[in-house]
Amino acid sequence: MTKTLRAAFAGVSLLSALTVVPLVSVTAAQAEELTLCWAAWDPANALVELSKDFTTESGIDMKFEFVPWTNYADRFLNELNAKGQLCDLIIGDSQWIGGSAENGHYIKLNDFFAAEGITMDDFVPATVTGYSEWPKGTPNYWALPAMGDVVGWTYRKDWFEKPELQAEFKEKYGWDLAAPTTFEQLKQIAEFFQGREVDGKTVYGASIYTERGSEGITMGAMDVLYSYGFKYDNPDKPYDMNGFVNSDGAVAGLEFYKSLYDCCTPPGAANSYMGEGVDAFKSGQVAMHMNFAFTWPGLQKDEAVGGDKIGYFANPAGPGGDKFAQLGGQGISVVAYSSKQEAALKYIKWFANPAVQAKWWSLGGFSCLKAVVEDPGFAATQPYAQTFLDSMAIVKDFWAEPAYASLLQASQKRLHDYVVAGNGTAKEALDALVADWTETFEDEGKL
Amino acid sequence: MTDSKTSPLDRAVEAVARSTHSKLVKRVTGLSDRMVAWLFIGPTMLLLLAINIFPLFWAIGLSFTNYRANRPNEPVEGVGLRNYERILTDPDIWIAMQTTANFVFWTILLQTVIGFGLAYLIDRKFRGHAFWTTIILVPMMLSPAVVGNFWRFLYEPQIGLFAYAVSFVSGIPPTEIEMLSNVALAPWSIIIVDTWMWSPYVMLICLAGLRSIPDYIYEAAEVDRASPIRQFLSITLPMALPFIMLAILFRGIENFKMFDMVNLLTGGGPGSTTEVASITLKREAFEKWRTGYSSAFAIILFVAVFGLANIYVKALNRVKQR
Q1: Which CATH class is domain A151-326+403-443?
Q2: pLDDT digit string (tens) for B193-230?
């Protein structure tokens, strides 16, 4: 080989090396991939869109594992129990927090938050308690509040504004047809619309949660029971439930929920939850619709029932003026079995950024960051923004104990047996619920 | 001669050895017939042990503990017979067992009557009977998931064809025909679907029974001037009875553990109206995660089905011997 040829060969080799090295390092960076597990629903699509910014900034690819709500708990709790490595990040339901913390499924985030300057004071307090803390009320954080959610109501504003209906309603009930402020008013409106012809179609009063299999009827009935005086236990003596779960107020609340189901729901609505509720509202079957706030962006955009035709209101007050709403939503956690915890924590740090949180809200997610929701312009950003704020201010949540699944299944059975099947009385149903929950806590060694 | 002291397994091995081709045996030099047979049977036996026998014994072991599959880090404690005691004294479990028994009774009764009736008609060999046999068999060829889902739509009080058909006949508004949410109608909604789907299966077994009755018996009866009713009662029914009983056994075992259809149609509701034992078991095992408790329940159900099936098989053998 001549000198010239050697030099040419060396030059080409050097050039090749210079070209390949950056390519290799880019490939190595992009090869890092995180899998985020969540439910398959509208906010998940918004998160996919949002996470593209994370990939651009960090070079870490995001992969998503979304499972329909009906299988969400089964699928991911099985995965966590099996110490599986499918999920690096998980947006787990708020009720999982106790079990996931105690069983070591999530990593504790306190040190990470402290190191990165993330403070829980920056988030809406109810979401911190609901989605992040275990034990409740203590500064032990296992998740970053990710998706605020709460049960509220939508109504057909266009029907409510019809002059002939307004006149008839005023004559019958003595007050103006408008979004109700008490449950009594809500029932009057529901009765008014039940079986009525509106725009040539038979419509019904309200769609409420009645689903038996997962958590539907509990989320719906509790939404009412809280405002009637239901409490999970004695505030001074934890797990002492007699007289709180089955108090006179709670009994009255459950009787009210049954009366609402009996008088004012569409035919065959005995197993209705989020999807069925949205279908009933979108198809113009019902005047009012109980559902989690995550459904609101989709309904607002709907051509048939959205835009000017839809209105929103927070859960109305009970007979004593108390007003509470069932908390939904989730926090985002790093799975303890993930081999990519460092990258997963990077994602959480990025997600906590106020600019990212603002974009999250604009894409259809429900931010829990105070900087977003307490911004003076927030209420005007969407027609449902003020109702979301009002609702988040009055939230209560179901048990988040490690035994939440047993507690939930007991309430599903007792509530469905009374409300839908009409077995026994409300008092008997709640007494039985106290007995079931007591047995569960005895098994847990907490009683 | 087979030694009466050898186990059934040894006898099976010997039978396989005897039926193995001699050329093949010769090729495997150095191994006895019995060893070759063991080599053939071994993998199947291991598979059977791994996926059937081992889990059964494992479940029996778990049934005496407080084990929860969702708490892998917690210590597992023995609880003796407490799980069994709790199950057998729980009124909700007994309600679920009653619901199961009702469901099994009515589905078997209807499927046997309809299935045998259809078999009897098809056996007449009328013009186009092959075509109608195929049409009748279609429901049982469908997946239970498909059947459950489309019947759920058929039962819809606002848009379902079933409600409209009943309304057309009865004059009751379709919105009042709430098959899946009415406490009185919900159990029947499942019984109707199960009967629709599985009567053809009973028909098929009964048809085999009817076709196995030799024609000369009927010819002899006609010579004796036996009426068609007498022929049916004295020849058809007794001779087809073992087949009918076999169909009842198959459907009984299947319906005792019925899960898919109930889960898809009502999910056990409204309330607990249609909560059969398998739904309760699923809730305990995979929703409440009471693994020890649900293992005990599964063992109780297994013993119940196994015991009932054994009694029934003995009765079936007695009928066959007659």
Answers
A1: alpha beta
A2: 999 999 999 999 999 999 999 999 999 999 999 999 99
How far apart CA B40 and CA A227 sit, in angstroms, is 70
Cis-peptide into B270, omega within 30 deg: yes
Give the number of C-alpha atoms closer than 13 A to the C-alpha of residue A312, restricted to the C-beta side: 26
B143-172 pLDDT per residue, tens: 999 999 999 999 999 889 999 999 999 999
Q: Are B175 and B225 contained in the same domain?
A: yes
In A, minimum Cα distance to B71 occurs at: A103
Q: Does B149 touch chain A (CB under 8 A)?
A: no
Q: Are A231 and B140 in contact (CB under 8 A)?
A: no
Residues B108 and B19 in one domain: no
Cβ distance B161 to B154 under 8 Å?
yes
Please judge whether A420 and B287 are an interchain contact, meaning their C-beta atoms are less than 8 angstroms apart.
Answer: no
**Of the partner residues A99, A103, A420, the one whose CB lies closest to the CB of residue B270:** A420
Residue at B63 is within a domain: no
In this complex, is the C-beta atom of B307 within 8 Å of any C-beta atom belonging to chain A?
A: no
Q: What's the CATH code of the domain at B171?
A: 1.10.3720.10
Cα A445 from Cα A437, distance rounded (Å): 12
CB A227 within 8 A of CB A253: yes
Q: What whole-number percentage of chain A has pLDDT above 70?
A: 93
Contact status of B290 with chain A (Cβ, < 8 Å): yes
* Side chain identity, residue B92: D
d(CA B275, CA B98): 10
**Is the pLDDT reported for residue A116 higher than 50?**
yes
Residue type, A417: D
Q: Is the pLDDT of residue A8 over 50?
A: no
Per the structure block, which two tokens stand in for A128? 């911190």
CB of A188 closer than 8 Å to CB of A316: no
CB neighbours of B132 closer than 8 A, spacing ≥ 6? B122
Burial class (CB in 10 A: 0-12, 13-18, 19+), A19: exposed
For residue A219, which amino acid is it? M
- Judged by a CB distance cut-off of 8 A, whether residue B95 touches chain A is no
Are both B31 and B176 inside the same structural domain?
Answer: no
Helix H or strand E segment including A3 = helix A3-31
Q: How many CB pairs under 8 A join A and B?
A: 85
What pLDDT does A21 receive?
46
Global pTM exceeds 0.90: no
Share of chain A above pLDDT 90, in %: 85
Closest-CA residue of B relative to A267 is B175
**From residue A266, how far is each of A53, A187, A222, A269 by CA, in Å?**
43, 14, 21, 6
Domain assignments of chain A as residue spans, ordered by start:
33-149+329-396, 151-326+403-443
